[in-house]
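Handoff note, outgoing to incoming analyst
You'll be picking up this chain. Sequence as last confirmed:
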Amino acid sequence: MALSPAPAPGRPSGPPTGHTLGRPSGTGASPPRRARPAELPSVHGSLLCVALPALAVCAEHGQLTGEGPEGVYAAGRRLLSRCVLRVAGREPVALQGRMAAADRAVFLGVLRVPGDMGPDPGLTVERTRSADGTERITLRSAAPRPLRLPVEIALGTDLAELGAVASGRSGPELAASVHGTGLRWTGGGRSVAVSADPPPTDSLAAAGVLRWEAELAPGGAFTVQLRVRDDSPARPAATPAAGAGRPGGHVLADAQAEGDDPRPGELLRAAVEDLRALLQRDPAHPADVHLAAGVPWRCGPVTAEALWAARMALPLGTRLAATTLRALGRTQISGAGPESGRIPGPLRDAGPHLPPRCTGIEATLAFPAVLAEARRWGLPAADLEELLPVAERCLDWLRRAAGGNGLVPDPGPAGPWRAETQAHAHRAALLGADLLDDCGRPGGDALRETARTLRERFRREFWLDDRAGGRPVVGRTPDGRSLPHLGGWAAHLLDTGLLGGGRYARGLLDRTETEQVARLVGTPALDSGWGLRGLGAKEPGYNPFGHRAGAVRVHETAVAVGGLAALGHEREATALLRGLMDASVAFDHRLPEMYAGEQRTAGGLPVPHPAACRPAAVAAAGAVHALLALAGIRPDAPGRSVSTHPLRSAPLGAIRFSGLVVAGESFAVRVGRLGLGMVEEAAEGLQLGV
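Most recent structure output, in case you need it:
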């Protein structure tokens, strides 16, 4: 059911030497040369209706013209590329196109009635298009006399794969044939049909046109409904109509926010909608769901980003985390080799100063941390019992990887050593030790020793002292060079992790160093005013559109907000949160995975990144994570307690979060204008604290 994307510019999608999507090759052979990726068409200005595996990419005018990526897709195949409406030989004048929900867009246009001499339009055209291609077209007449108007819809498709569309290799439209109450196209062993209700009065297969004679009384309406259906004899089983059997509220709770500022409510509503729209089932294990990384380019198998998103969405329930962990666990490398316990994954761009990083290592280190935190939020015992052995194997790999010199290399045994990877490893070791102790498993003390060694080496080798108070370095190369380039990666040094009793795991840095990183994160070099830059504006190689070289990545900004708030640095946390909130308004509350790191100016707006996915899992879940930093919820379901540590400054005024899930039951918390938190709803028997 994966949509087949073309690789985004600057993001290696294929694995390099020693790392494959399956098992490591163990050879030193050079990877095969890949063709230079084509320029991805920008979809920022498009309306994307998403209910995976169904997707519709629409322009704001509502017509599907077949240009660029426009069309209706199912499981990565374009079922419909053209759907052009004409009334009395003319296209409606487009007035408005907007998203009505994550899976549905509405369009409004008008036409002057033939024979009228004045400027006022007498005919309104309303179109509602869903992700699965179902479309409802309604003509409403305001004319004082009866109308009889010819209506025609020109349809077409190329049945192209999304990857071919993205790279400009989609091919010509196929010839249509009359089929039932509509048209049908066949090519390459695939076929798709469009049916219409009411049936058309005329069908011209050669032109791909359906026609009606619409009769409208004064104030009357005429409606046509189109349905697109994949008629391929061997179509994938996981391509139902949008909403049919799709996971939704039983996976992610319907959380809400209300208060003095209306923006958190709008952002949280859109984030939950987008997360639900990005859910997709594992074809081999239909009971398991995970998040697609982003639409339209990254809807493939489960990734490390899906795991990070599931972690940040834990306040909406633990089921998504459990099924995502289960899906990743099935890919874990077994056996007795040096890579045993690692989760495989491709490499992705790490910016101008370091080679690509391994997403498999990232997922391996995230697995035990997410499992430990999911347990604190209320993960059922059966899920914990099933997933704990996988986490133990991840932790065994971590101990072996760090056994050489106390640091975890990434992507290969020869390094380099990245600050971000050490932060993930340290958190995994501490949360893993806590998890093993609580579950009566051995190995906790060895993990704490690993964390202690890693912490000491990090503070000795990854910190540069200077007159301004010092700064962390992004990494160290195999030849011993330090790379002092400051960027959004520093947010992960502030990300701690949830332990029992509402405590946070100790970070890599001491108190003075943590305060210095918090100060650096709040400087204009990193805080663009819209969020945290991937690379500081004063660093060599800075590019405001660079994925890891200056663009604002919502995931890192959300991590920084949560970490700063938890560590008591409210001023910096509030500044980043407000920037993220303001950016969300400019993006109609549907945050892309990244946008340009241009400095905010009075009256300016954040600049979209042309290759960014929108919606994206880490952006939608990051919005949840950043907003809930206002309440500072710290659950300990095994200990039957929950506490809140809200921002004392109440930067957005009074706010109430409801529909959250702690210990498997509904949870609601209110933060007043004075920064005081109060739990209003919780599972029976939970000890409440503030």
